[in-house]
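User: Structure please.
Assistant: Input sequence and predicted structure:
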Amino acid sequence: MMNSRAKKILLVDDNEIFLKMMGQSFKNHGFECTFASSAEDAITLLNTSSPPDIILSDYEMLEMNGIEFKRHLMHDAELKDIPFVFLTYFSDNDLIISGLDLRAIDFVVKDTPIKVIISKINNILFTIEKQRELTELEIKKAASSLNFKSIPVTKPTVKGFEIDFWHNAYHDIPGGDFIDFIRVNDRYKFVVLGDVMGKKWMAWFFTFGFLSYIRSAVRFTALSGEYSVAAILQKVNSVICFDNILKDILSSLSLLLIDSEENKITYAGAGDLPLLHYQSANNKLKQLNSTGLLLGLMEEGNYNQQEIILEKGDKLFIFTDGMIDFIDESMKKSDYNLFVEMMQPYMTMDDGFTKMKKELFLKGLDQQVDDQSIISIYKN
C-alpha cells in the first residue's frame, strides 16, 4: 500500500513561469512541492532539508545543466539514490542515453499535457514504493530466519536499580542502533547502547559484528576478573580496526557497568552523546561527557572511564542521536539542549520515563529522521 503522506517533489527549472505553473498543478494533485530556479539552488536545498521523494529537473539551464546536476548528485552518497526525472523541450537520443547512464528514471517532454506528466510521476513513485516494499519484506523474512535481535524484548532486573528503555526504528526498518544488557553474575551487569553509522538495513547488518565483539570482550574480561569498561572499549576497537569487514565502519558506543553491591556505575564512551544525570537533591540535569573516539576510527581510541554514583531518586539517561534529531519546517536539525529542556518536567515524577514514552517520544514520531533509542537507569 502506498504511504498516505503527501509525496514531496523538488521542481528545478530556470523558467519561473513554468516553475510556478508546474508547482501549482502538482500541489492541486496532493504533492508537497519545493522549488529551485537553478541546479545550484537545488543542491543547497538538498543539503539543508529532508530529501524529496523525487526530483523533476529541467535539462537546459544556465551555469549547470540537468546532466551536470544529476552527475553532481551521483557523487553524493546521501543524494544519489533520489529518483530523478528530466524535463526537456526536445528529444535527443544521445541526451537520453547520457541521462539513463546516470540512472535517471525517465525523460519528460515539456509539451506533454500536465495531467499526463503528473500521472507519469505518480506511476513512477508507485512502482518505486511497491519495489521498496517487496525488498523490505524479503529482508525482514531473512532477518527473522536469522533470529538475531539488536534490541532486547524485555527490560532487565538489577538489584537496587530500575532499568527501562525505549526504541523506535525509523520507518519501521531496523537500522544501526543496538541495545544489550549483559549479566555477568548477581553483582555485575553491563549496559550497552550503540549506533552504527549507515542507513537502515545496511547499518543493521553490521550490528551483528559489533555486538558479537562487545559480548566476547565482556565475557573475557569477566573471566579474568578485571571489570574495566575503558579496557573493554579499547579491546573492541582494536579488533574492529583489524577486521577486514568492519574496519571502515564506524559506531558510537556507551558502555556502563552496574555494580549492585557497591551501588555504583562505571562508564566509558566512544563518540557518544553526553549522558544525562538527574540529581534529585537539587533537581538538576547534569551532562556527563566521554573522551573516546568512535569505534573503528583509529586504533588508539583514548578511552577513559568515570564513576557515577546515583543517590536515591537519581536517574541516568543514555541515548542515540536519533533522539535529538528532528524535522522542523522541512529542515533537519539536531538540538541536544532542546531535548534536555523537554525532558526536565518529567524528572520529578516517579513514573516519569513511562510518561515520557507516551507523551514525548511517541508524539514526536512525525518529526523522526533516524532510529531512536534511549535507556533510563533509576536508583530506587
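The chain has a mean pLDDT of 86.
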